[in-house]
């Protein structure tokens, strides 16, 4: 049964067009070929420079090729040290665990066990969902409207976007949806619904294993939960014995002005997912943090080939030591976040129906007319600024500079954005 | 609602024990701390040398830190080239696509579209399952007894191991199991069951979207399907319009003596999953290969933060150019595979009830008494050889040297294995 | 493999205890053996008479053994006419369809197709859910907190009670729960949630096939929906193309003062389920009413052995002709309903925290202390009145006399109830 | 939101066409209106007489309106005895339980608890599945190719027919299919597959709660399992602690020559479902029989409005006393079964590719050309014999006379069938 495929002669043609799946997406809005990058800047093969306020969708919080991280990695690789080790012990892993304990856990009074799943955010989320179900013996997980937690089947079941959900090709199971903060425009008391149904044996909704939440919905429109809402959620979960999972894949690693995005609210989740900027240099890496009493796995019960990727340990360790040994860096991020908010609100003031969304350096502008955001992003690209859109209808322009952005760079980006908005509105008018 | 956690003082203690989740596994059998590695050798922080016939569970087919790959990566990183790019266009991605076309696709007459999902095997499998369901409009997928396809929820549903399945904490959906080659000891004609139920409107089994198969079951006991069985499967699928997915994550990239493990059978799957050794240096990377008519995605319908990890493009390109420009390397792998088989069969000849399992350099010894395999692996470790076990009852010692292993190294490993078996049997006797 | 079972000698013992499954329930509260019955009265084998304000949980709206219905049945049976006919044509079925058209459909301006599924309420509900899914191509169905729709797996999935749901022994699928009228004590606008999530492509909740609702929740605590709430629901469904199913199994057939319980609200559901009192004499019978455009079945696509039970056609026809040829009977039911409400409210006035619940002759008293209702029912039984409890915590005493009850009988029952409440409160005080 | 429906004026038109759902089925093949019936005969409103070898799909084993049953029912109804009682105690229920114990259980050495679910076969099956899942704590149930167990969602999940399964409008869960006896034409050893996968922790198939089986597949083509196959199944289940459910809804109540169809094989199922002919007169009635150790229900955990239908108790008691007090009747059924087999085999001998299928008075002729069976049934109807077809492709003519059929009547039916086959073949030739 040997098929024979006819192969087109593609010599000299566009190999992206010919070979890469049509699922490719960002390249459609930014149809250039990037080659070099440094800090907040990407450079195409033709030498065109772009100010990058996209930051790898949050995977490049310290900018491209930060010297401290890069040097550590080059040193490690040059010395023929172990690259790939699954869950064997390595020196690099030990260094990472120590750095994480010393710079992240201990200063915050947090006692988490560190699980190293496959090196992507969705893997960390799948891990969190599994252990929450195992620990509680319950199956359902509550997620929120417009949540995004990943594309593998378990994570997709707790993701809101209907196009992405339909991509599963099967129904999605064991999740139910609750309204995110302010989803119903303040018309209903927070958590009235969950509190009532969890207490009511006739509600039809069984007590869930867990609630999973993003403190800021990076893909779902940059909705930011109020600290008091997060505290009420944590309190509700505690009262009912429901585990609280914070998916800090996008909002964590400093993006909102503290290492964890939930610190501001003063809550301590039962489980935390980190990925994206954890390695710092853009290397695939993720961890799932578990309260010790939840670390109930059998050895190897969850595994994955790339769960011990030492180059990521190395750059993550370098990043933790470089940026998180004290609050200096975080304070600067909060300052830049304030600058970004001011800038966005100034633009918004001129656009009826538009509004600031987000928190820290994970922020943007929402437009009532959902077509505007995409047109603004396109215009910005033409002016050599990379910003993407967010939200179910792509109704938000999302501004996500590296955390290391200078005040001047940030202002430059805001100026481009301002011009882009004016330009789009001029055409629209 | 601010919890306060009590943090143990762990200064000077074992940070692995204190911080890493108990899910860790390999380190339990190999309780040393590795630091350096080269070719077929890993070295602990104390300088102890181990012959590595485990090869990162198949992620290190070219050995540790192969110079050609390492040099390419160091060069790339030193020049501040783009590390992380999602699905933007980059020079490194273009180079990879061209290399893949020139060394892999074109010489084999294969016309696949290359999808770049999240960089792990399970991500490639989830992607394959999604597109198979989308393309056919059907939901079920047939997998085989003792299959292993990954730990995220979609892949887990087509995985056989009951301990791993139970880890999901929920039922698993839309998969059904069929007997792998020789599962019923030759007592039933191949595919009698599938052929009958697919044709019978009263069977209770709907026509599936796809069948997913490993040509050699790397985790499930090193069962190797006969070429004629694979051809019959491909033929059956074609007759019923069921898509054939080959999960070549472990058996692919040369492991069985050809780039794809299914080449020997002369079949052309509709979808192929590659990962593990695709980057060559142990960097997270995976691709899903789709026949062009199956490339039916909406842009961004499946995505993932690390779906464009340029360092992996770079080392993968280097590996393809180094090893796959002609058949020289593959021929050598086949030769070493023959040597391994001979060696294993010689050992087996002395152990009643034991038998050779596998194909190429993905092979091992199955023991009737399932406790023997683990004891042999432990004894081998004591003699500084890394081999793991495979199978639902860990009943197989799995021997998986790098493909670059020399004849002498291979013989040295076989000798250690031989001594280990003798030693275990002596104790058992 | 012939098991041998040891059979206890049960001669002379209680065959109910020895042989009937422990699932039996009503007999536990009413431990007497009934033998005869007429109108609102049941008589035990010992000649004890009970006033029956339970009415077969709504299956005996015209009282026990109503002469008009009984005579019709005896005549039919005596003449050797067809008893069992599946979905063949019979004279009895034709008579029923004509009577249903003339007394029910035509006077109300309703154009429904009549489907005859298996003769139980849950069968009618399963039928409704199937055709709603088939007609819309969607899978999910929204039901309400404290709903009860039946015990087979499809109906159970839209039922609220957690004990009954757990009885399934598997998860329940493709349903989601919304708050019934006043479930959140007026704190949230009606349907704010459903309206928002159905419009939002990021909500995580796909548009459902249907909403299924009881206008009064007979098992779930006698909550009665306001007409304006029902109208808003019907309007919402219409705007989104979601089908509206009214489960009128318990509240229909005149129980609330009109043939259909939804008439008062002035809505026209897409699908209606009737059973219980449809045959009038307590014979198993149910119908599913479909708007003609939803009658999309293949012949035999849904079937069932007892879907054509002619004795039920005969008594149903007699009942329709006897009671529903004009509004006289319904007007009298509404009058009795008012009398019942007044009586219950007078009792309630003396019990702090208690409140009237329900509508028409489907009403009761809710107690804040959920143990009171059961104790009142027990006391009433001792005084030879049959009333049951309702609600997730059995917190409501449910009063459900036959619709044919006289004003004097009703008063007699209310007096017993009054005495029972006083007696229980005296003990409690 | 008051819809107004336009109602067609249907005076004088065909109310079946106008009002009854298009799901109706038998009336399409037999387009006459039946009115009277007695024994093996049905009479239309126009006085045409039909020999009924369909017997209500097995619900009329004692023929239409058997005098002993009818008299008992008329007496009961005339005396105003309780008709509808849910699971209260009644004299009629006690009489039934005693008769069932004395005529069925005790003589066969069987110690079952009798559960009275809703009065249809599918309700009995749903009940069996629930309790099997509850008792074992497992979720999956194995059913067989071409099984038919009912149309509600739980029963449908263990039913084979793809058209009926698709009618669910959702996926069906927690069932898996195994080959019925001789499904694979003898090419594989019985139960090789189930035995292997249940023992193998890597098979991907968890141990099920139960296996559900019909000894003869009444709807699925009249395949009859060999006694040794049933014994091997019972033995396999016992060894693995899997419950064995026999669905005796169609094959039970004497249809195969003994009260239970499984008696011939000498097995004792853990759970048995009975319905159809249990009431004897065609009244809706079903029971689920449970080994005492499986009677683990909470009171009311499974319920249903019509679970205590006293008229069915009365006719069932009369039928048990009339036909099952000794083996006389059963012996006569076995004799008629032999006569039927001889007659069918004589016809078959003249039709190449045709074959006898079934057992006892549940038998038929299978044709290789699946269109023949339907044409034969149509021809038979024209000659005033009612026989239906069976099988996924309606490839079997199913002959199911009342068990009370006389030898002469049976011969008359066989003669008509013979002529019908000749006539159809003549046309085909």
UniProtKB/TrEMBL annotation, chains A, B, C, D:
EC code(s) of this entry: 2.6.1.76
Enzyme class: transferase
Superkingdom assignment: Bacteria
Entry-linked Pfam families: Aminotran_3
Annotated metabolic or biological route of this protein: Amine and polyamine biosynthesis; ectoine biosynthesis; L-ectoine from L-aspartate 4-semialdehyde: step 1/3
GO molecular-function terms, A-Z: diaminobutyrate-2-oxoglutarate transaminase activity; diaminobutyrate-pyruvate transaminase activity; pyridoxal phosphate binding
Alphabetized UniProt keyword annotations: Aminotransferase, Pyridoxal phosphate, Transferase
Cofactor: pyridoxal 5'-phosphate
Family the entry assigns: Belongs to the class-III pyridoxal-phosphate-dependent aminotransferase family.
Name this protein carries in UniProt: Diaminobutyrate--2-oxoglutarate transaminase
Organism: Ornithinicoccus hortensis
